Hints:
Layout: E1 6-10, H1 17-28, E2 31-34, H2 35-48, H3 56-60, E3 68-70, E4 76-78, E5 81-82, H4 90-93, H5 96-100, H6 103-118, E6 122-126, H7 129-133, E7 139-144, H8 147-160, H9 167-183, E8 196-199, H10 205-220
Parallel strand pairs: 1-6, 1-7, 2-6, 7-8
Antiparallel strand pairs: 3-4, 4-5
Helix pairs in contact: 1-10, 8-9
Bound molecules: 2'-deoxycytidine-5'-monophosphate.
2'-deoxycytidine-5'-monophosphate (DC) binds at residues 13, 35-36, 39-40, 96-97, 100, 126-129, 177, 181.
Amino acid sequence: MDKIVSVAIDGPAAAGKSTVAKKVAKALGFTYIDTGAMYRAFTYAVISKGLDPQSELLSNSLIGQVNIELLDDGTVLCNGEDVTRQIREPLVSGNVSYIASYKEIRLALVEMQRAMAHSKSVVMDGRDIGTYVLPNAEVKIYQMASVETRAVRRYEENIAKGIPTSLEDVMEDVRKRDYIDSHRAFAPLKPAADSVLLDTSHMSVDEAVENVLRIVKEKTGVEGKC
Ligand code: DC
């Protein structure tokens, strides 16, 4: 059996991690794991039960009752329900940072993430993959871009998906999430000491993918086919 390789891609909201990570995974023949989608699905579960996501106690009460599945085609299931679209809507986006700051919920989701990376090669994107979830990942990338670039990208993504938002609201949401994600007490967003910084502010998606594949080749010898 080929050696199991983990590629961790961390960085702030809307830095284009998932777009790049998906393409890198495809080129390498690895499984792509979107950990942000897991925090989003948990947030959806809290809201749809009528609980307040700003209450840690109430949100924690769902631990063990939320079954999240990430299908290979990108579909996200939450207790069997297809929530792929709902988890990108403003109600979830505006509350997910609260859920992601609760330690007990993080521990439950991290356990699932580690199990996923245990048996197969993965490209996993998130905020704490290189620092906490997979500290021994062979490749660690910290992908970033300016707030303005990220807000415009997320805004255009929303428009393309038919999700109505304004650029100002998206910018505000990105700033707010940057702050909460990097200031939380447990496993905050920060580059791992051994990560490679990749600033994609002036890069196309293909250029970012090529850069990541080059780093993967340098670190592991594994070559991707675009
Ligand atoms: O990448 P995203 O925007 O879908 O992430 C949604 C939220 O989940 C974001 O506010 C940060 C949080 N998150 C996290 O804390 N840890 C991860 N590994 C992934 C996402």
